[in-house]
């Protein structure tokens, strides 16, 4: 089984069923599959072959869905990248992935229009052709609609997704069809997807969760994909109400900002049966807020990471009243989870350990990086770098990233614990805590603070605020005020940049 044949199957089985809904169009599965064949035929005429790499630079549009399946139909690997990347980041991925084709959207063309012409790279954009850029629409019009059969198996490579690069240069994560279909099957069953489901896509389809868990799973069962190129609270509420969508995946911030919409109670959100969030847990008070504002008890948290498919753990509907903030008490379908120490031995209940995951959804490896692949995959277990503990009821609670842990005087300090406290200070808008070198203690705790109001003596005020909440050795000794913390295009904090700013304590 492979992904492009899923679409061909739905085209034959339910040709008139809505496959894609955009703000301006409704496209059946038959029409979608027809366009995929046409684009694939034209790309083949331009020399795209099995194993070639195609970088896809688009927002959530119909062209994304057509190109994604067309490239794979020829046995080539699709490399979707975030629409917000700047040119230098795109150029790095083009070179590192050995891409032979680059496809972008008119909405994003200003970001890449200065890309020099290369005989080794075919450039395609939607809209009118410009200079050496071919027209996506012309390729569609010129291509044959004859069915192109994809003969690849589940063990063949399907795609490369690049990590966000928060600790350095992005890494290319290789997925086989088996990897992707494994996690898609998990979502179909865990989230009860069916042909009548209507899946709302507002988070970037270049990310593994929206792409593998919801686009591929929805196509597997023949559901309808409702595409919105960007996220705003207003668009979310209007689309759910108008299109009667049933499944949505979003970051916690999408729920929290939408919950503050002054007219949320005027929208009919009753069609939704799975409000899914991931990337970070929601605290109990945040869960209570979202459930009240959205009038729902259908919140589900998913934990995983790109390298796992993503697959991992689930926090179900019924557990949000008592275990919000947790990532659940069990691994999702097709996955196993453990907490281990530095030697790979399971830790005891209540102890902090690294989350390791086992399942066929795990990546094949990092592209052109055997060393990092071997560091992450050990006896088929994926070492996530996420530290967690399990409570007396078996629920997992995230503690911090392993790479962010500070070791001071031989004692482990988890920055997230400190950050979670400082962010509750009424005059702190944002905060990050890192370890900086200390010749005597190994590392010293330093806090980078974005103020919401003027704090006269930041060190004194933070110490006063923390002294009765955490142990003294965890309280930062160094502080630096910042206008804003460095983050990447997906909002992830770039702590590597903060560590570079951190001074050595004499």
How does the helix and strand content classify structurally?
alpha/beta
Helix content: 25-40%
CATH architecture of the largest domain: 3-Layer(aba) Sandwich
| Unreliable runs | none
Portion in beta strands: 25-35%
Categorize the overall geometry. Answer: globular
How much is the radius of gyration in Å?
24 Å
Would you count the extended β strands for me? 27
3D architecture notes:
The chain is α/β, with parallel strands linked by helices and 506 residues long. It folds into three domains: 1-152, Rossmann fold, CATH 3.40.50.980; 178-404, Rossmann fold (3-Layer(aba) Sandwich), CATH 3.40.50; 413-501, GMP Synthetase, Chain A, domain 3 (2-Layer Sandwich), CATH 3.30.300.30. 29% of the residues lie in helices and 26% in strands. It is built from 14 helices and 27 strands. Helix 2 crosses helix 5, helix 6 packs across helix 7 (208-221) and helix 8 crosses helix 9 (252-259). The longest helix is centred in the first third of the chain and has 17 residues, at 29-45. The mean pLDDT is 94.
Give the arrangement of secondary structure elements.
Layout: H1 3-13, E1 18-21, E2 26-28, H2 29-45, E3 53-57, H3 62-73, E4 77-81, H4 87-96, E5 99-104, E6 122-125, E7 133-135, H5 136-142, E8 157-162, E9 172-176, H6 177-190, E10 198-201, H7 208-221, E11 224-227, H8 233-243, E12 247-250, H9 252-259, E13 274-278, H10 284-294, E14 299-304, E15 312-315, E16 330-331, E17 336-340, E18 353-358, E19 365-366, H11 370-376, E20 377-378, E21 381-390, E22 396-401, E23 406-408, E24 411-413, H12 415-422, E25 428-438, E26 442-451, H13 458-466, E27 478-481, H14 495-501
Parallel strand pairs: 1-11, 3-4, 3-5, 5-6, 6-7, 10-11, 10-12, 12-13, 13-14, 26-27
Antiparallel strand pairs: 1-2, 8-9, 9-19, 14-15, 15-16, 17-18, 18-21, 20-21, 21-22, 23-24, 25-26
Helix pairs in contact: 1-2, 1-3, 1-7, 2-3, 2-5, 6-7, 8-9
